[in-house]
Write a structure and sequence with these properties.
Length: 308
């Protein structure tokens, strides 16, 4: 997949089928759009193109909102869209000036002139431009005038509710990893750098890698112990992750640390990708260190069983 980080960088050497959106999570609610995009590209012998934004538009338009956390960083979005078979990705820097562009100006100057779009695929409730004026009807009218097709994809439902980034965030905040994964269509990802910690895990016989997310706004699931897969240099390893405080040791600071099973290599400074498989239990304060160690052995056995 070819990735461009600005319209000025974009290489307009082919016609395209285009869809525009934040695509936060690249979840099952986006699956119909991505399928229609690929199908339209193949049918027209053109390339599929996703246009997305960085930072997330809500952080620019509503900076006072609290807890606007991302399901996917830009790098994670690239990883997921490439797996979906998309040909091109354009990441547009989102600013207030860009947000003020009206929908017709955006369609003419970017979608048609720059990206050479022959087809546009939009979601059931998607709107373009300042004040969200560009809806399906208006885009269809522009398509008839300027010579491009517009297709609308209806919402995908699961458990009688629409699949949405908002719903997935709620499940992750509640610790419902299995439900979030079902809505995503894959295991939730967290990309981070391995940094130095206080080495408590070594004292317990369960050495851990401390993880610092690569993006400050990345959503970290609620506190607890999780069965995870840890991808290091392209290879996946089984692990159990603790997110939260260490109450047995009277440490209140929140940490993200993972014990990688049967792994002893030094990985400080490496970027790793965590896949959350399931939540084992909440964070618990144990009366003794020995009780904690016994629980960690139980956690390890459950993790191995889950990840077989």
């Amino acid at each position: 997949m070819r990735v461009f980080y600005d319209t000025e960088q974009y290489v307009a050497d082919t016609c395209t089928a285009v869809s525009v959106g934040t695509f936060d999570g690249v979840h099952l609610g986006h699956a119909g759009i991505l399928k229609a995009l690929r199908t339209s590209a193949v049918r027209g012998s053109i390339e599929s193109l996703i246009v997305t934004f960085d930072p997330h538009p809500r952080t620019v338009l509503f900076p006072d909102e609290l807890d606007m956390q991302l399901l996917t960083t830009t790098d994670e979005k690239i990883h997921l869209l490439e797996k979906e078979g998309i040909d091109r990705l354009l990441v547009i820097p989102f600013t207030r000036e860009f947000a003020a562009l009206d929908y017709s100006g955006f369609i003419r100057s970017v979608i048609i002139e720059k990206l050479q779009a022959k087809v546009m695929i939009i979601g059931f409730n998607h709107h373009f431009g300042s004040n969200r004026e560009g809806d399906f009807e208006k885009l269809s009218g522009m398509g008839e005038m300027l010579g491009f097709e517009v297709h609308k994809v209806e919402a995908r439902q699961k458990s009688e509710k629409n699949v949405s980034s908002t719903r997935i965030r709620k499940e992750l905040f509640a610790g419902n990893i299995s439900i979030a994964n079902e809505l995503l269509g894959y295991q939730y990802l967290l990309t981070g750098e391995v940094v130095a910690g206080n080495r408590l895990g070594n004292q317990l016989g369960f050495p851990t890698a401390n993880i610092r997310p690569t993006h400050d706004a990345k959503l970290v699931p609620t506190d607890g112990v999780y069965a995870v897969l840890v991808e290091i240099d392209g290879k996946k390893h089984r692990g159990m992750m603790n997110i939260g405080s260490r109450p047995t040791f009277h440490i209140q600071a929140r940490a993200i640390e993972v014990h990688i099973i049967d792994f002893e290599e030094a990985i400080y400074g490496k970027i790793v990708r965590i896949e959350f498989v399931n939540r084992l239990r909440p964070v618990i304060k144990f009366e003794t260190t020995e009780a904690l160690i016994r629980q960690l052995h139980l956690d390890k056995q459950k993790t191995i069983s889950l990840l077989q």
